[in-house]
Amino acid sequence: MSDASRSPTPPAADPVRARRRQIARWSLLANRFGYLLWAVAIVTFVLGFVFGFTTAVSAITIACLVAGMILLAPTIVIGYAVKAAERDDRERGL
Q1: Mean pLDDT by 10-residue block, N- to C-terminus, for the chain (94 residues)?
Q2: Fewer CB atoms inside 10 A, N or C side of the chain?
Q3: Cα–Cα distance, 7 to 59 (Å, whole number)
Q4: In the 8-state DSSP scheme, what is residue 8?
């Protein structure tokens, strides 16, 4: 049997890398949503500054800032951790 007739067998799916990709996807989604919340907070603040602050404007601004911080703090760290783990795997030839 020649080398050309053999079909290459795909490497076994690494469950750690599959889980890491899944975590990276969820982290990216949460990261985008966190930045979206900050953008809403900024727009709401500017609108409140231009048209006058009300209780609702203040509540929306503060809620979006806090929710954005709660989402962004861990997702930024997780994103860097996933990138570092992938880089380490590449450097070790895995």
Answers
A1: 50 79 93 96 96 94 96 93 90 82
A2: N
A3: 62
A4: P
